[in-house]
């Protein structure tokens, strides 16, 4: 199509999505000014923030407000003034008006062998009313400088059909809807440079939207992905999300407190004793919160990992384990003193889980589960799988270790108590995509995955007893105060579900 100020190439006509290329919107000189030698020297590996199964390119994040305004003024004539959303989510529906470009600019460098696998771009939230809807991606060099490296678009997360592809020239700008699955194809030669940000829109208030709505449990959720849920005690549920906020919920699902201080997503939570809460973040810090009569207060904070803190678990009233994106497991006291470091994993440690008799289980992006004696630091056994393992659960009565992996499979392993020898009892496909979370309760097992599903299983038969849906990845599960199954999702919502059929309530989730 032709725009009054120039050409727009629509990569997905009749799709209903914005997926537009504006060829050569930025000149060779402008691209050179954006990609200076100082910028090229400042790139860092993305592995401290992202698993290698997701992406392995280099990145640089800068916040430059005056530059974002200049970029915005150049692209503004090509942008939709308004976007109309009908999603079924009352927090999103309505008309959104163009506002600005996100001042957080992300440079990406791809060298031979590097990629950014299929994904959706996350929404950037300025507030509940101001958030991003479109991706802004500027190609800083031309395809004649590298091999491979196309931008590929897919109809869905699981579709094998390439819906559209683009091989750029220097100065080309692509704009596309955050709801489009896409990837940066692996580079075969050379280097490719990209600058990306987000186009922000502001939701327009309507009479209907301004009417007060009857409250529902956990209604406000979080702004952005919810990463973690924790049943702290019989009264309180705690959640953490991409909005850098920890929320404390009462029995009715009303938010009673918001804990601030982390500078990036809260990825994990743990209860250490009846008064002590731990939080771990992508900002690489761990915070210790103490419960008093008026609520939680910050007691201590420390950094013991050189990458994102991915998992926390209680070992005693004064001791915990943490796993990180730096491949390490730390055994730490509440003062932040590292008592022991467990080294052996070759990639992200997705979860650490306490076992009886001073033992610890860990699962990793490196396709292994390791069993440790955390008191001596000895690795007792390494259990390999064919893909990354993301989550674990343990049944102490039956000595059963349960794992969920990248391929959507659940595996049950049994031990005779020494934890150095394990036998696989059963493996079955539970989800179409990564299993993000497992929760064990009696004979039942609940799982949540990247197919947006929560599923409840009979462990003895592998039969699915029930299934519940979110509109995005299911990230965490917990048991609510009413004995309900609670799930948290990338769709910004916490949902409460009834458990298995009533006749099975003796061991219900």
Describe the structure.
This protein has 509 residues and is mainly beta. It has a domain at 2-208: q2cbj1_9rhob like domain (Jelly Rolls), CATH 2.60.120.620. Helices cover 5% and strands 50% of the residues. The protein is built from four helices and 44 strands. The N and C termini lie far apart (54 Å). Mean pLDDT is 92; it is low at 501-509.
Secondary structure elements and their pairing?
Elements: E1 2-3, E2 6-7, E3 9-10, E4 19-22, H1 28-34, H2 37-40, E5 44-45, E6 58-63, H3 65-75, E7 82-85, E8 94-101, E9 104-111, E10 116-119, E11 130-139, E12 146-148, E13 151-154, E14 162-166, E15 173-177, E16 181-184, E17 187-203, H4 207-210, E18 226-231, E19 237-241, E20 246-249, E21 255-259, E22 266-273, E23 276-281, E24 286-292, E25 295-302, E26 309-314, E27 319-324, E28 329-333, E29 338-342, E30 349-355, E31 359-364, E32 368-373, E33 378-384, E34 389-395, E35 400-405, E36 409-415, E37 422-429, E38 435-441, E39 444-449, E40 453-458, E41 463-469, E42 474-479, E43 485-489, E44 494-497
């Amino acid at each position: 199509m032709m725009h009054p100020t120039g050409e727009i190439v629509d990569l997905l006509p009749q799709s209903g999505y914005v997926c537009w290329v504006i060829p050569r919107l930025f000149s060779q000189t402008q691209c050179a000014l954006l990609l200076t030698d100082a910028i090229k020297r400042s790139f860092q590996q993305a592995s401290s923030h992202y698993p290698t199964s997701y992406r392995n390119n280099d990145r640089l994040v800068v916040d430059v407000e005056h530059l974002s305004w200049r970029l915005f003024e150049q692209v503004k004539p090509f942008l939709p003034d308004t976007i109309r959303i009908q999603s079924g989510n009352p927090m999103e529906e309505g008309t959104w008006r163009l506002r600005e470009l996100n001042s957080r600019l992300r440079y990406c460098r791809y060298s031979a062998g590097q990629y950014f696998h299929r994904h959706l771009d996350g929404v950037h939230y300025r507030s509940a009313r101001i958030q991003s809807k479109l991706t802004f991606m500027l190609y800083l060099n031309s395809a004649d400088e590298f091999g491979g490296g196309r931008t590929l678009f897919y109809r869905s997360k699981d579709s094998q059909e390439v819906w559209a592809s683009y091989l750029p020239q220097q100065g080309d700008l692509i704009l596309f809807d955050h709801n489009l699955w896409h990837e940066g194809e692996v580079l075969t030669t050379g280097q490719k440079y990209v600058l990306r940000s987000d186009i922000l829109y502001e939701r327009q208030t309507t009479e209907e939207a301004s009417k007060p709505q009857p409250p529902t449990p956990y209604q406000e959720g979080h702004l952005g992905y919810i990463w973690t849920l924790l049943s702290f005690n019989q009264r309180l549920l705690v959640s953490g999300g991409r909005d850098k906020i920890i929320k404390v919920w009462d029995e009715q699902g009303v938010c009673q407190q918001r804990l601030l201080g982390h500078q990036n997503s809260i990825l994990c939570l743990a209860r250490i004793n009846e008064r002590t809460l731990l939080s771990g973040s992508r900002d690489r810090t761990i915070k210790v919160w103490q419960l008093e009569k008026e609520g939680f207060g910050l007691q201590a904070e420390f950094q013991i990992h050189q990458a994102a803190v991915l998992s926390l678990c209680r070992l005693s009233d004064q001791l915990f384990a943490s796993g990180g994106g730096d491949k390490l497991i730390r055994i730490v006291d509440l003062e932040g003193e590292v008592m022991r470091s467990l080294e052996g994993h070759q990639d992200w440690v997705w979860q650490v889980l306490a076992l009886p008799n001073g033992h610890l289980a860990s699962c990793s992006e490196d396709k292994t589960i390791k069993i440790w004696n955390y008191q001596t630091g000895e690795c007792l056994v390494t259990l390999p799988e064919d893909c990354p393992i993301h989550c674990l659960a343990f049944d102490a009565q039956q000595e059963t270790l349960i794992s969920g992996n990248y391929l959507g499979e659940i595996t049950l392993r049994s031990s005779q108590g020494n934890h150095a020898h394990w036998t696989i009892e059963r493996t079955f496909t539970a989800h179409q995509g990564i299993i993000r979370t497992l929760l064990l309760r009696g004979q039942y097992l609940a799982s949540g995955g990247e197919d947006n599903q929560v599923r409840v299983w009979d462990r003895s038969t592998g039969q699915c007893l029930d299934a519940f849906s979110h509109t995005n990845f299911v990230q965490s599960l917990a048991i609510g105060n009413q004995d309900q199954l609670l799930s948290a999702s990338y769709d910004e919502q916490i949902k409460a579900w009834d458990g298995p059929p009533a006749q099975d309530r003796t061991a219900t989730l």
